[in-house]
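Write out the 3D structure for:
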Amino acid sequence: MPDPAKPQSVQSRDAGWPMLFVLALLALTMAALAGYLGARVAMGPMFKALASRPPVLVLDIEQALRQSAPQRDDTILRRYAEQARRLAGQGYLVLEQQAVWAAPDPVYFPNDEELPR
């Protein structure tokens, strides 16, 4: 119901604010959705490339041998070989540290105590 105390021009301007707010909210929602979908399309090739690459694990046998008694060397080498075969069976690419020129620290298993059992 129109307010008789307000002039007609003020009443018609007040009626437009809810519609303007709804339109601005709709525009913001559509822009966010378009940005998300554009990012998904642009990142699609990268996601496909990452999915086709196996996870990498670098074993540092030399450090494990340095930290153990010499009589345990054969046991450690057998254990590393067994774990490497098991991890390869699970889809990991297992490398030995001497064959790696550079790798981030999280991919290293520095000693045999840290090998998964």
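The mean pLDDT is 79.
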